[in-house]
Amino acid sequence: MFLIGVAFFLTSQFTYGQISFSHSIGGAYYGSPQASATAIMYSPRVNFLELSDELTVSAGTHLGLGIVYNSQTGENSFAFDFPFVAEINLGHGANADTRSTFGGFLGLGYGYSRIGSDGAFGANYNDALGPVFNGGIRALINERPVGLRISHLANTKKGFDNVLSVGLFYTFGDF
To answer: Does the domain spanning 2-171 belong to CATH 3.40.50.300?
Structure first.
């Protein structure tokens, strides 16, 4: 949080509008060859550079938390995904003043992900740390601001695999 505060302070001299906050919630699937799990995804972000109503630069996360219990096999699958990303937001959802009905985002950052299972037949999990590439679309569907996000975490830990995630989300606020 301290680093985020310092980044906002240093970039405030370049901001063309007010710093704004937005957030969304949804569901996500996290997968690797070693393990997979579904989770709830919460995505807060702060727009720290507003170039126009249709173009912003933000910093935030797409935090994923989940657990699934399979009563037939006795296995628990869980997911914890914490990427910190800087994103360019275009069109719908870029900020609250946007009037577009379609938009998207593209981001780069660094993240940690642990997904796995522990059951009667042993433990299978994936522990990943490394650069994160993500992107997605946002649109108004039936007057609801929804989106789709795809992410790839390139794992730098030995013995574990990369993590691919796909999520659907609802953005809070008037767009």
So the answer is: no
